[in-house]
Amino acid sequence: MSQVIHFHPDDDFKERSSAAVHDPAQRKNFRGAMDFLQEKRRVQFPDQDELAGLRELGAAIRRYSLARLPQLLEQLEKNLTANGIQVHWAETADEANGIALGIARRHNARSIAKGKSMVSEEIGFSHAMADAGIDAFETDMGEYIVELAGEKPSHIIMPAIHKTKQEIAALFAEKIAGVDYTEDVDALIRIGRQVLRRKFAEADIGLSGVNFAVAETGTICLVENEGNGRMCTTVPKVHIAVTGIEKIVEKLEHVPPLYSLLTRSATGQPITTYFNMISHPRQAGEKDGPEEVHLILVDNGRSQAYADEQLRATLQCIRCGACMNHCPVYARIGGHAYGTTYPGPIGAIVSPHMLGLDATYPLAFASTLCGACVEVCPVKIPITDILIRLRNEAQARPGSADASLRGSGAGRKSFTSAIWKSWSLVYSRLGLYRLTSWFISRGRALSPTDQGAWTRSRTPLTPAPKRLRDLLRERWR
């Protein structure tokens, strides 16, 4: 990659989002893309009764799986190990990268072919490998494009959704030797595939994500459209899968409902091109497949969400991106403005557990609370309720019962707290309220013209010359 992207969600979030809002080309691109994806999803769910039933089933499966998460994780490890797959546990991103690096060094690996994996983005896998002198390159077309551009994905399903075909054409012409500028989309796809096809054969290790891990059979399920996931998991001699600890179900029969919800909610497809089920390394007599398979189970803050009954619902997510596609805020500012691996509504409720609420609390306020995300979430995550909870946590007094998360109270300001304490005092005492309202109405000329965020796009608020109490007294005098 041409540069390392460091995520600082709280650092200049307002400036990043403001810049995105004032970029008409980007707003047009995102609006068109979101409208297109919304329509594709609507076509896939013509029967609202079927959708309601499927969502309820999907939510029930995810809640059931999370309720038994510790036992299912142990069962998964037992069955994977029996199948010949090596299981590793990582509490932090650094531990996960350290495990992968140890595997790579044991095999003297110099290159790693990466299938699409948001968890690998979350832990900074590519940069950790680059620091160790190992080339970890993206093979998903969207990920490959943003990697060439030195950027991060702006959407969890469609990483390069923020780029136009003209921008991609210019990027390929600049970065890939011997490639001429062309805006033919099919030609651009062929160019990318030709470059990547050669790399698959040269890679020492293949890395993938995991959509579902089945505990009772020890099976890793991988959803994809391009075939690069299948190449990453079969061509290299070693396959490393990396996933969050929440991506687990008990039985194979739990996968089809979630699979149906995932594909239709994400890209408006009835089914993806490839659905890979991996249960063991290459067996005797088999012509392809890796000689070793490793699964790295990553916590990285998920236990914090799991420990809280309300916040546990965050872990129900199946990473479809539907909440982003329907979010009016995401559609206007795009994914990069959030400054986190997971943008949009789901990012606002997932990221605090991974990065701390002190680093991410502004994201909880970057929402209209319109509920569009809740209406389309295939597993019925109460996103708006969790956003309100995070807002309260951000304003909580450190050490209080309301401050339960890492970084709680980060948004609390002494001046603001003093204002609300004064407001509470005035409104809890009738005599003080009457006296204060009298002074405010009579001193309306002293109202400030600069009232912070309110007056950035609105006229200043000025108290009425007379209180309602005064008007009623005059009327009935």
Strand order of the largest sheet: 1-10-7-4-2-3
| Principal-axes shape call | globular
Output the radius of gyration.
26 Å
What structural category arises from helix and sheet content?
alpha/beta
Distance between the termini: 78 Å
Which stretches are poorly predicted, pLDDT < 50 over at least 5 residues?
1-6
| CATH third-tier fold name of the domain at 13-140 and 205-303 | Rossmann fold
Proportion in β-strands: 5-15%
Biggest sheet layout: 6 strands, parallel
What is the number of beta strands? 10
Mean pLDDT: 93
Q: Given the structure, what is the number of helices?
A: 22
Domain 4Fe-4S ferredoxin-type: 307-337
GO biological process, one term: lactate metabolic process
Keywords: 4Fe-4S, Electron transport, Iron, Iron-sulfur, Metal-binding, Repeat, Transport
Protein name: Lactate utilization protein B
Structure description:
Residues 7-17 have a biased composition (Basic and acidic residues). Residues 307-337 form the 4Fe-4S ferredoxin-type domain. Residues 1-22 are annotated as: Disordered. This is Lactate utilization protein B. InterPro entries: 4Fe4S_Fe-S-bd, 4Fe4S_Fe_S_CS, FTHF_cligase-like_sf, Helical_ferredxn, LUD_dom, LutB/LldF, LutB_C, NagB/RpiA_transferase-like. With 477 residues, this protein is an alpha/beta fold. Among the domains are: 13-140 and 205-303, 3-Layer(aba) Sandwich (Rossmann fold), CATH 3.40.50; 425-475, no CATH class. It contains 22 helices and ten strands. It has a six-stranded parallel beta sheet with strand order 1-10-7-4-2-3, sandwiched between helices. A four-stranded mixed beta sheet has the order 8-5-6-9. Strand 5 (212-214) and strand 6 (219-224) form a beta hairpin. Helix 16 (344-355) crosses helix 19 (383-395). The longest helix has 21 residues, at 24-44. The N and C termini lie far apart (78 Å). Residues 1-6 have low confidence and may be disordered.
